[in-house]
Amino acid sequence: EKGYFYCLDFSSVFAISAIQAIPTTVDTVIDLCAAPGGKSLFAWVALHPQHLLCNEAIRKRVKILIANLKRCGSFDTIVLNLDPAILAEAMPNCAQLVVVDAPCSGQSLLAKGQTAAGCFHKVTVNRNANRQKRILANAAQLVKSESYLLYSTCTYAPEENEQVSAWLLKKFPEFSPVTVPALQDYQSPLTDLPCYRLWPQSGLGAGAFTLLLQRRGTTISHPLNQAFLERHQFVLYPNANMT
Fold first, then answer.
1. Which residues have a catalytic role annotated?
2. Which segments of the chain does DSSP mark as H helices, in order?
């Protein structure tokens, strides 16, 4: 309750740990699908960014995100409740790291003993793959030149993981996959790309997928749009209203 600890399951740590392969200082981190906040807090502690923006498009999930950030003392974090397309239009080429822990079919929930109705159904998988593509297309526009994009899920379907990764690299050829030496033992057997998978049979977690990308080439970088953020952000003062 005092924020001394935040319990993050191993699968989540596995997915976000790829950011530790980033060799440069990271000034601005945007977590596009941030609730409940564990991966944002991991990035906050691991990278010490000057600016941490946590966006959650689903309004009802914002409250738990704010509660976790406040409990852990991350009061300077900017919390937003926006469609990724709005962010991409308002603040292109502004971040050294964009994290997309994408909404998915949630197949790994079954390994946790939870329910995920229809998670293996083709319609569910395809719907989530298309949803991820839309989010990633907007995320790509937020990344500065020579900066990074992390894509992760908590599902097993290759249609949502390796195939979305291949689509992203074809759609945005300025991005290149980054090898993460610490995760080499978890290389996905379903692709030659440096995509990493944690399977439940490993005994380490329910499962996860992760891929780190770097944007190459030269683009005009932009500072954070402070006026835009001031209009849309939630204020995280210790006693701020979370409704």
1. 154
2. 10-16, 38-47, 62-71, 84-90, 122-142, 162-171, 226-232
